[in-house]
Protein: Bet v I/Major latex protein domain-containing protein
Amino acid sequence: MVACSFTDECAVAVPAERLWKAMSVKSSLLPKACAGYIDAVEVEGDGGVGSVTTVKFINPAVGGEVMTVKTRVVALDDAARVIRSEVLEGGKLSAGIKSQVNELKVEAAGEGASVVKIKVEYERLDGAALSPEHQAKMTQSMLGAVKKVEAYLAANPDEVV
Structure:
């Protein structure tokens, strides 16, 4: 079997450090910022390497059914603003993916702005690569959450400073 990967990125009108704090596993902001998309986030551990996070997503495509994804932090570098998480349960693992690791990196991009880069590494049971359409759906989902956090922070300038 062959491991595959894909990347994507988006510009965000929020300073890198503020966005990093808001997107942190330790932050309680995601359910507020992503209301209607993320129902709840539960963290077992201190948010560092080894911590397990359970995120309950609301799937409007399936009548608002809640989908649970459990991940474990496998690498965290607060100085470089990079987190890597292994998907343990849920998400695309049930769709023929044997293993999946997601990486999120927040880079400064000038005053008051940043760039979020994501990388998804995966291995499918059949050894094939995901279709470009499937990859796009995965990155749109991840970057969609980032854009919701951006909008929330813009509307709430006193939070996460």
Remarks:
- Residues 3-155 form a domain with the Alpha-D-Glucose-1,6-Bisphosphate; Chain A, domain 4 fold (CATH 3.30.530.20).
